[in-house]
Amino acid sequence: MVHNTLFKVAEIEISYKPNYKPLERPKITTSEEAYAILIANWSMDKIEFLEEFKIILLNRRNRVLGLVNISQGGVSGTLADPKVIFAVALKSAASGCILAHNHPSGELKPGSNDINLTRKLREGARLLDIEVMDHLIVSKDGFYSFADEGLL
């Protein structure tokens, strides 16, 4: 006889509760619009000190579902865990996303780690029918867009 105590599992509940109407959500059609939303929500006290990774989640019409802080690291890096990124994207039923992180040095050019991570996340997103629209490297003075530079 099998005892139920051996098979206890946590209940998982999924909810997404936006407090605004779909037409009130900002629409992103350019990298400049994405940067404007990101920089308005980035701590200027930390942008030149700690590396952070964020994502903008989008619906099918490129309207913003939300902006999510994925991770905060140190001066030279942060962890962008694909499991966390895709869990959040799936929970909000996002059709697309824009990846973003800062380089505390202010250098906007992507390194090989940035390029490899973008490729890895794009491949994973494709399997989930989520489009990675762009990856921005941001600073308080400007940004680098993978899409605009043909790296997506």
Automatic annotation (TrEMBL):
**Which Pfam family, any one of them, does this sequence belong to?**
RadC
Does this UniProt record's set of keywords contain Protease? yes
- Protein's recorded name: DNA repair protein radc
**What InterPro entries has UniProt attached to this entry?**
MPN (IPR037518), RadC_JAB (IPR025657), UPF0758 (IPR001405), UPF0758_CS (IPR020891)
Q: Which CDD domains match?
A: MPN_DUF2466
What GO MF annotations does this protein's record show? metal ion binding; metallopeptidase activity
Keyword annotations: Hydrolase, Metal-binding, Metalloprotease, Protease, Zinc
